[in-house]
Write a structure and sequence with these properties.
The complex is a heterodimer. Chain A is mainly beta. Chain A is globular. Helices cover 8% and strands 36% of the residues of chain A. Chain B has one domain: Alpha-Beta Complex (Sulfite Oxidase, Chain A, domain 2), CATH 3.90.420.10. In chain B, the strands form 2 sheets. In chain B, strands 1, 4, 5, 8, 9 and 10 form a 6-stranded mixed sheet that branches. The radius of gyration of chain B is 18 Å and the shape is globular. Classes of the chains: A mainly beta, B mainly beta. At the A-B interface, strand 5 of A face loops of B. Bound molecules: zinc ion (ZN). Zinc ion (ZN) binds next to loops of chain A. Chain B: It comes from Agromyces cerinus subsp. cerinus. Chain B: InterPro entries: OxRdtase_Mopterin-bd_dom (IPR000572), OxRdtase_Mopterin-bd_sf (IPR036374). Chain B: This is DMSO/TMAO reductase YedYZ, molybdopterin-dependent catalytic subunit.
């Protein structure tokens, strides 16, 4: 099967990065719990923000911000569901 | 030159040469945690060093019976604060590694609570790192990483893992928790190795 380069993601991924993430539903890759991101546990530290599963405490996501750059890690989320339409 | 300027002005606006670039002095000790504070009873506490061939273990009594160093050092947080002249007591990594044979050159530090951070072994030896259990003459409080934390003061302070429970030797350098999420693999404050 042929592949195309990542520019092809622009359309499909725009949807994922343009909605209110707190309304999204995520699946924890540790325990399998499926729930709204708004119901996770969020820890803020100077180094960054850590989002943990409220069922099993696993790290779902990390956010690191500087004045000119930002990172999001989604190491503990196996899938995200967003509402459409 | 600097001391003449100081003599004239009576106070100095010059940069303290102990302060790495981009850092500001603080007097207090900001608390930076990425999760709930683990409550680790010293009766349950254990420290391990895992190599390619064996695991070395110390419980709290064994650990605190080792040679203890008094460490006076400056610490530098990646979030731009530095604190000068902090005092710690702990066991030098040189002491711990006296009993350890390994060919592997990289270390992943693991903490109670799941946090990890990577440091090359040669940056932990020769008087450069400790497992510290006292700060300012008092047992290290849980919010500052007690019962014991790694202390690697020549690197940014996120490398000084709180609630440390063990070191795992690695053949190659691999990123720890924050290093996977934007922070620098090495973290030298003097060359501002803050992020990727
Ligand atoms: Zn979970």
């Amino acid at each position: 099967m042929q592949h195309v380069d990542g520019n092809a993601l622009a359309g499909p991924l725009a949807e994922f990065f343009s909605f209110d993430l707190t309304t999204a539903i995520a699946r924890c890759s540790g325990c399998g719990a499926v729930g709204e991101l708004a119901r996770t546990m969020v820890y803020r530290s100077g180094a960054g923000t850590v989002v943990r599963c409220s069922e099993c405490d696993q790290v779902l996501a990390t956010l690191v911000e500087t004045a000119d750059r930002a990172w999001i890690g989604l190491s503990g989320i196996s899938a995200i569901e967003v509402p459409r339409g | 030159m600097s001391f003449i300027t100081r003599g004239f002005s009576g106070c100095s606006r010059e940069r303290d040469e102990r302060l790495p670039p981009g850092q500001t002095l603080v007097q207090d000790f900001p608390v930076l945690s990425a999760g709930p504070t683990p409550e680790v009873d010293t009766a349950e506490w254990e420290f391990t060093i895992r190599t390619e061939s064996s695991v070395h273990r110390w419980n709290w009594d064994e650990f605190t019976s080792l040679a203890i160093d008094d460490v006076d050092t400056d610490i530098h947080c990646v979030t731009h604060w530095s604190k000068l002249g902090t005092s710690w007591r702990g066991v030098s990594l040189d002491t711990l590694f006296e009993q350890v044979e390994t060919e592997q050159e990289y270390v992943m530090a693991h903490s109670y609570g799941g946090y990890t951070t990577n440091v090359p072994l040669d940056e932990l030896l020769d008087g450069k790192a400790w497992v510290a259990f006292e700060f300012d003459g008092e047992p290290l409080e849980p919010e500052h990483g007690g019962p014991a934390r790694l202390l690697v003061p020549h690197l940014y302070f996120w490398k000084s893992a709180k609630w440390v429970r063990g070191l795992v030797m690695m053949e190659q350098d691999e990123p720890g928790f924050w290093e996977q999420n934007g922070y620098h693999l090495h973290g030298d404050p003097w060359t501002e190795e803050r992020y990727w």
